[in-house]
Amino acid sequence: MVSLKTDVGSISLENPGMIASGIMDETGKSLVRVLRSGAGAAVTKSIGLEPKPGHDNPCFMEVRGGYVNAMGLPNPGIELFREEMEEAVKEGKIIGSIYGAGPEDFSKLAARMEDYGACAVELNLSCPHAKGYGMEVGTDPAMVKAIVSAVKSSVSIPVWAKLTPNTHILTQIGLAVQEAGGDAVVAINTLKAMVISPEFARPIMSNKFCGLSGEAVKPVGVRAIYDLATVLDIPLVGVGGISNWRDAAEYIMAGASAFQVGSAVGTEGLCVFKNINEGLSAFMEEYGYGSIRSMVGAAHE
What is the CB neighbour count within 10 angstroms for residue 153? Predict the structure, then answer.
């Protein structure tokens, strides 16, 4: 009998899949639906100190191989998000995603998420289309180290850092997270992208620049996890283009202890978690893997 149970550091999950930040995780009710669909945990929408409307429309569209979006981190702010967390944490494990401009912002937000009952915080150091946030602070190893260190000093729950693929020094940034005491690295976020309308000779998105997600980014994400696994000792969480059990198995064999699903929820619905769980179990049974742990990093051997 195979087991899908897995651990991300001190966080134990009944199933290895989680909803990725930004997908059906804005409200308590939607987070509960995710947890009841077969996900081992749910990551919230990234929350900041103050309410933020995000970018004007158009800010989201489908492209070949996935989606592009330039939402601009819309959220109700940490004060109003308390009600959503109160409803969600009663159902299962919630990882609070937060964004900020520097160590002080992240520390304040992480402390509130801990107060709200989050089992871990995920630091958004990777959004590619929000000026002053995300990858703009997450591609400087010194800043990343300062942010993770500050958050570790302000909370007792695990601290995960979500990193961007839009850099040539990903492993250096991962090492900065580890040296600062970070408990896990999540990779990847969207790839910085742009879509142009030939008819209007202009970028389509109001923000011009956006992020590409979906099946097209999966090989980039798998490579990122493989690279990070060669230098880090802390757990990895893979995300990017996962829509079936084979995609999940690739990330696990590259070195991830768990994974997150985002765009596929838009194309497959929440049944994607049940389908991945069943597919992974059947594969593990057939190929003699008794646990997720026994698969982690298998592609390195």
Answer: 12
Distance set, CA 12 to CA 34, 106, 138 (Å): 17, 24, 27
What contacts 45, CB < 8 A, 6 or more positions away?
21, 22, 25, 26, 75, 97
Catalytic residue among 59, 119, 127, 210: 127
Q: Which of 42, 40, 14, 13 is nearest to 30 (CA)?
A: 42
* Cα 110 from Cα 97, distance rounded (Å): 9
Task: Provide φ and ψ at 250, rounded to 5°.
Answer: -60, -45
CA–CA separation, 248 vs 244, rounded Å?
7
Q: What is the pLDDT of residues 272-296, one digit of tens each?
A: 999 999 999 999 999 999 999 999 9
CA distance 153 to 156: 8
**210 classed as catalytic:** no
221: left (phi over 0), alpha (psi -120 to 50) or beta: alpha
Angle at 46 between CA 12 and CA 148, to 5 degrees: 65
Q: What is the pLDDT of residues 73-119, one digit of tens each?
A: 999 999 999 999 999 999 999 999 999 999 999 999 999 999 999 99
